Amino acid sequence: MADDHSLKTSHMAIVLGIGLGVVMLIVLSLLLTIVVNRRDRQTFMRQRKNPDERLRNLDAVSPTRTLEQWWTTTKGKMGLSEAVDGQFVCAVCLEQVNRSEEIRELKCLHVFHRECLEKWYLGDHYNCPLCHRPYFVVDNPPRNDYVWMV
């Protein structure tokens, strides 16, 4: 009978030890997840706070020039005739782009007002507003606030 009681007690101690170990692992993984996510979020927020630096990255893939400058070079490359009028509408603001206005051209050859594409980009949109082709790959893409542990 005494052996039975001590056996039950030792089994209970083992079960409690394992249970406590599992709980400790869960708590540690949650704390680690919170720390990692907070660090990533702080890095992301620092990048968001410096729009000038982000716009320099955009300049590398989409230089600024007037629509007139763009149209004269592009028209020849595309082999378009003089009859093509070259009127463009910005797909972001839906306003016509005048020949003297600054534009940004993407690799897909879509043209937007400079300010419109900059606002689009600073809003964490890295694809063309028309064809959704990626024009910029983010080094550290925004991550979810929480990492789910499975």
TrEMBL record:
GO terms for biological process: protein ubiquitination. Keywords: Membrane, Metal-binding, Transmembrane, Transmembrane helix, Zinc, Zinc-finger. Residues 90-132 form the RING-type domain. The chain crosses the membrane at residues 12-36. The keyword Zinc applies. One of its GO terms (molecular function) is ubiquitin protein ligase activity. It comes from the Eukaryota. InterPro entries: Znf_RING (IPR001841), Znf_RING/FYVE/PHD (IPR013083). This is RING-type domain-containing protein. It comes from Penicillium citrinum. The lineage of its organism: Eukaryota, Fungi, Dikarya, Ascomycota, Pezizomycotina.
